[in-house]
Amino acid sequence: MLKQLRRKLDTLKHDKNYKRECLKICFIYLFIGFIWIYFSDHIINFVFDDHKTILKLHTYKGLFYVFLTAVVLYYLISGLLKQVESTEKKLNESYDELSAANEELQAYVQQLTASEEELRSQYDQIVEFDKMLSLSEEKYKGLITQMQLGLALYEGKKEDDIYHYKLVETNYSHEVLTGLKQDEILGKYFYEVLGNLEPEHVEQLMHTILTGESTRYERFQNNTNYYYEIIAYRPKEFQLAVIVNDITKRKLAEEQTKISENNFRNLFEYSPDSIFLLSDDKIINCNSAVVHMFGAKSRDEIIGKSPMEFTPNRQPDGALSMDRLNGYLDECLKNGKNRFEWWNYRGDGSLMPNDIMMTMIKAYDKNIIYAVCRDISDRKQMEERLHYLSYHDQLTDLYNRRFFEDELLRMDIEENYPLTLTMADINGLKLVNDSFGHIVGDKYIQKVSKVLKEGFRQEDILCRLAGDEFIIISPNTQEEEIKDIIIHIKELSKNEEVNSVNISISFGYCTKNKQEESIQEVLKKAEDYMYKKKLLESPSMRGKTIYTIMAALHEKNPREEEHSHRVSQLCERMGKAMNLPDDEVRELKTVGLLHDIGKVAIEEGILNKNGKLNDEEWEEIKKHPEIGYRILSTVNELSEMAEYVLAHHERWDGSGYPKGLKGEEIPIQSRIIAVVDAYDAMISERSYHKAKSKEYAINELKSGVGSQFSEECVNLFIEKVAGEIYD
Question: Would you say 660 and 647 are in contact if contact means Cβ atoms under 8 Å apart?
């Protein structure tokens, strides 16, 4: 029994309920024992005093405790055993259920094993079929890719029209034939790929999609210049396969058969170029342009003749025409083509240059030379003109520097000694350009070149090196002869002028007498001598030109002359009022006279305009101080005055022009001119306003103090000058 109990207990020792029951029994046993021992001892000792009686009671108490605990343990262990039996029963029932489930599971496993074998067999078959399908697909793709026909596959949905079918597949031939790159069109809609397809062809394709019937048509594609045969069919529902076949050669052959003869006849007959056919050195056919070129009445006068009958014996370079023509014909027969220039007679007997293109063609089992002759008379004239311009100055028609450098080397030989080089330089050209503009300056240069041509001899070589420099090469000429020529030219110059400015030229020369002398050294000496002469002659010429320019200005606008003289007098009065030295007073008077010299370069219409100037005209007027400065600065004696003229429109507050000088930065002479110029402009009649009163002008000067004018100059002018000159 104990073994059975132990076995049952062992089966439950891992059960949480079993452990809890064991702890419960121990706790009850401990509690009862503690209560019994503790309270029984105290009760006995309290009730009885006799020691023997107490011992007996303790003995009976122990026996009673054993009996009591045996009864309690019996009931507790009995309850535990009932739980063990109940648990064992449940375990047996669970075991039976598990056994039944295990048997059922084994049956399922057997079924699954059988199904797995069947599925494995089916899988092997699917893998085999897949391999066969892949191999077939690869063969199909290879066939599609390598075939010469282009293929494009479109797919759509039930609700899509043809324009919204997408391109899903193309082959390489499709790209080659249509010029549509595969990576650029895949995935695009039909209308994006073939948006320019003709409506009737679109209807054919739509019919194929709807009915499944294949269709065929031909079309020409502009971007590739190919003719295509299109065959369309429906592989599956909502698919459209388009096969493209290049039929260009066939179409061209068909068209060529129809039109080649007519086209050739038209091109041949109506070409503006002269065309003829040669065989066995004879002309066997020609167009009407050849008849016109040779001045014949009809083709019959030309056909059957040799080209040499219309050609001079020699070409312009001296070569025999017969030999050269035979060489050209042989080269054409050898290489299949040839191109060359050729001179032949016109109908009026004059020579005409031609650009001839020969091509050998086969016809009737014979070698025929097809020759096109193009009149290049205009081109030859242009070439001669370009050659002329490359060695001549366009403005003067004299030789240019390039020609001079080449000719100097050619002329530097002993038979031309003494060889004299003469340098000529125009005096005051910059002054003329600044004063009257470059158009007048160009006329000045042309006048000088005209005088040089008249003064030098026929055998002398005149060249223009740069803007104002000329050089003359005189072979077999002594220096004494050149001196006489220069004197003669200076006399001729006195009779020539441009805008009232007399021509002035400085000369320098040097002669090479021996071979060992350097021609470059001779040139340098001539140039140095010319510059020495220019230093002496140019300043006086520029001084005269200044007053010529003033005269030209006064001729354009007579009021300017009167204004300049009045400003000059007022400047002189201001200089004396300021107790300036006499030379500075004279200088101030001269500056007053020349202060508006820059207006000579301003258009006459602007200077004499009635009414207010517009912004563009005002900007033009504002240039005259700078122009005047450039004109005067060309003369050394007037260079300081040029600074005063440049600044005479500056304002005291810095808002003037052209530099925006302020206060004491403005030269005193310029400040004086600013006051007297403004005063005279107000009290004088101008093209744009009537004369104001003296009182008005003085009030305006006062109001301009500190902004436009110097207070010192205005006060001095009002106190000592304004009332004197007009009283």
Answer: no
Burial of 538-572, coded b for 16+ CB within 10 Å and e otherwise, reads bbebbbebbebbbebbbebbeebbebbebbbbbbb
DSSP state of 273: S
660's tokens: 């925006």
Which of the residue ranges 249-253, 459-463, 657-661 would you say has the lowest mean pLDDT? 249-253
Q: Among the listed ranges 72-86, 315-329, 544-558, 565-579, which one has the minimum average pLDDT value?
A: 544-558
Per-position b or e across 153-188, b if 16+ CB within 10 A of its CB: bbebeeebebeebbbebbbebbbebbebeeeebeee
Give Cβ neighbours of residue 337 (< 8 Å, ≥ 6 apart): 357, 358, 359, 360
Six token digits for residue 395: 């403005």
92-139, pLDDT tens digit by residue?
Answer: 777 777 778 777 778 777 887 777 777 777 777 777 766 776 665 565
Run of H or E residues at 727: none
CA of 141: how far to CAs of 145, 165, 183, 238, 244, in Å?
6, 22, 17, 21, 17
Are 358 and 338 a contacting pair, CB within 8 Å? yes
Task: Output the average pLDDT for the chain.
Answer: 82
∠ CA 69-70-75, rounded to 5°: 95
Distances (CA, A) of 420 to 468, 488, 492: 20, 17, 22
Question: Nearest-5° angle of CA 649, CA 653, CA 659?
Answer: 45
Encode pLDDT of 509-545 as tens digits: 999 999 989 999 999 999 888 888 877 665 555 556 6
Which residue ranges does the chain devote to CATH 3.30.450.20? 147-252, 271-381
Q: Which two tokens stand for residue 34?
A: 């503690």
Cα gap 54→45, rounded to integer Å = 7
| CA distances, 25 to each of 15, 38, 257, 457, 625 (Å) | 16, 20, 124, 158, 133
What gap in Å lies between CA 690 and CA 64, rounded to an integer? Answer: 159
CATH value of 147-252 in 3.30.450.20, 3.40.50.2000, 1.10.238.10, 2.40.50.140 = 3.30.450.20
Residue 443 tokens, joined: 């006329």
What Cα–Cα distance (Å) separates residue 347 from each residue in 262, 292, 353, 603?
A: 30, 8, 13, 57
Side-chain half-sphere exposure of 646, counting CA atoms within 13 A: 19
Strand order in the sheet with 505-512: 461-464, 469-474, 419-426, 505-512
What is the CB neighbour count within 10 angstroms for residue 71? 10
Closest CA to 673 of 559, 583, 595: 595
Question: What tens digit of pLDDT does each residue of 687-703 get?
Answer: 666 888 888 888 988 89
Task: Enumerate residues 6+ apart whose C-beta is below 8 A from 500.
Answer: 548, 551, 552
Q: Give the pLDDT band (50/70/90) at residue 726.
A: very low
Residue with tokens 């891992």: 14
Contact 424, 507 (CB under 8 A): yes
- Classify domain 271-381 at the CATH superfamily level: PAS domain (3.30.450.20)
Task: Calculate Rg over the CA atoms of the chain.
Answer: 62
Domain 557-721, CATH: 1.10.3210.10
Whether the CB-CB separation of 454 and 620 falls below 8 Å is answered with no
